[in-house]
Here is the input.
Amino acid sequence: MDYAVAVHEEIRNLFPAGADIVQIDEPYMQARPEKAREYGLKALNRALEGVSGTTAVHICFGYAAIIHERPSGYSFLPELAGSPVQQVSIETAQSNLDTAVLRKLPGKKIMVGCIDLSDMEVETPQKVAERLRKALKYVKPEDVIVAPDCGMKYLPREVADAKLRAMVEGAKLLRAEYS
Here is the structure.
């Protein structure tokens, strides 16, 4: 809980310094769901207590370059419905996530990871749109934020750039469908 207090102070200082959104990256709630249920959510809630600004949490499966096998579902995700965080960032591309779990997060904006960082092949915009459509079955379009699965630091720059461009074009396809 002392760590949560320290994170809380940092977050409180970031908004007055000009941050629009503060995201907490959380690699252990997914990896250790029993401990997360025991005290992880309590710690996250303490870190966000009284914060007046947009906050997000990224529930991570681990970097694709390091963690090669991924489950098809999160072991700790619906529990975030009880958190004051406004945005939840998830990975769907690498794990081929069953997005039905997203209906258990009403009122949250969902950052839908739609770029597979374990594959050097660049997605087509159509593939990106297809991945996003899976989430749109359970989340209103205005509550979807398009994102890569996780950090792109292990990708060569030209691959990362091309994947981000495909992500933008895939989002454009969906905007045309939903507007």
In short: The two ends are 45 Å apart (CA to CA). The first strand starts at residue 21 and ends at 26.
